Every structure is written in structure tokens, then in C-alpha cells.
Amino acid sequence: MLVTVLGRYSPYAPVGGACPGLLVQARGVALMLDGGPGTVARLQMQVPAAHLTAVLVSHLHHDHIADLHCLQYLMADQAPGREPLPIYAPGGDNPDRRWLEPSSFGARWVRLLPLPVDEGLAVGPLRVTFARTDHPEPCWAMRITDGCRTLVYTADTGAGVDLAPFARGADLLIAESTFVAANGQNRRGHLTAAEAADLALRAGVGRLLLTHFLPSTPAAEAEAEARAIFPPAEAAVEMRTYPV
């Protein structure tokens, strides 16, 4: 199983960067996790549109979904003969979910479905389960396994929900690290690098990949803060592919 970091910034991307998005690939399956600004262009550098299996949306904040409305046009243009691409997103009455609804034109190529947070999801050889996080907008962490290796993605979360049991024993934990100690006061629904490292340590994961950085916070500072607690931690590099 491989994971490519399409974007690592929030709530906006600096010049040359992109907001949150991951591409998970395993045995012919290609899953996109979230799709913030800039991610769809980068997705096309990794896989043809026809090879994208599904999209999983952790929550409905625009830094995680703004590019996904464009997928209907990408599919129509580059994969017109395929079955509609499933986009799984949290349900509820949040008006932002309408951003993901395909137009009458796009419904031929994209299908919006509820994220199956209770029963989980099987996509080819991959099994995905979900856990609610600590975030103002209902948000879901994801645990993805191919039967041999396991990846956990925290999505957006604060320290108010303990995700250690959910992440237990994962080979790779991709955790949000919006803040560092110097600017992490009075935050809500997000982690510092130290908190992400503490989560990794308590969960007994193999490696920690930090993401979801403020553009004003140097990733190297977050990496150093995390490594002081959990040495196999590193800052995610955009467009780098990591083995799980």
C-alpha cells in the first residue's frame, strides 16, 4: 500500500502548495481522501481519472472539499465511459454538502453517497473503518487496511477525543499538526505537533507523518517538536509517495 500527499496546508495553501488531500493506492485500487484546493490537478499527475476508484471525505469544511466539485468535469472529459465515481461524504443537513452534489450534467459521472461511518466500507482489497474526531464540524478519522499493512488518517481533530485505540498498531499514522507549542494556545478542534506525537506514541504506531500545517508555521519546527516525543516522525512532503 502506498500513500501520496497531494496537499498538506490549511486553511489555505501558500504559493505552490495545496490544501489537504491524500491518494492511497493498493492492488489496483486508488482512493482519494479529501480534496482541498489544488489537489485535483495534482491527482492527475499520479493516476488517470479512469483509474480513480472512489473518494472519501472526512468532513465538509471547504479546505478539504473545494476541489471535489470539479471531479464531475474531470470524469466527463477524461473518463467518459466509466461508471460514476462514488464520492462518500458525511450526511446530515450541512448546506456545504450541496457543494459536492453533481449537476444534472455531472450526475452521469459522479455519484454522491453517505459516508458509511457505522458499518465501514470495503473497496477492492481495502477495508475502511471510521471514528468520530474532536472537531466543530462532524469529522471522521479513517483506518485503512489491505490485510497486511494499516494506515490511519486522523483528518481534523483536537485532543478532546482519544484516537489512540482507533490508531492502535497502525504501520503509518498521518496526523494533523495545525499548530506547534508556540502558537497553539486557544485553539479548537486541532492538534499541536507534540499532541500528534503523543498520540502516535500511545497508539504504538510504526511511523508518524505530520500534515495540515498553517502556511505561517514552518514544517521543520513541527517535525522537531514531534521528534522530541516520537522519533520516527516527519513532516509530510507534498507530492511524495510513502510506503505504508
Task: Summarize the structure in words.
Residues 18-212 form the Metallo-beta-lactamase domain. It holds the Pfam family Lactamase_B_2. Keywords: Endonuclease, Hydrolase, Nuclease. The chain has helices at residues 39-43, 62-65, 71-78, 164-167, 193-203, 219-227, and strands at residues 2-7, 21-26, 29-33, 54-56, 85-89, 110-114, 121-123, 126-132, 140-145, 150-153, 172-176, 207-211, 233-235, 241-243. The protein is α/β, with parallel strands linked by helices. It has one domain (2-243): Ribonuclease Z/Hydroxyacylglutathione hydrolase-like (Metallo-beta-lactamase, Chain A), CATH 3.60.15. The strands form two sheets. A seven-stranded mixed β-sheet has the order 6-5-4-3-2-1-14. The protein has a seven-stranded mixed β-sheet with strand order 7-8-9-10-11-12-13. Strand 9 and strand 10 (150-153) form a beta hairpin. Helix 5 runs parallel beside helix 6 (219-227). The protein is globular, with a radius of gyration of 17 Å.
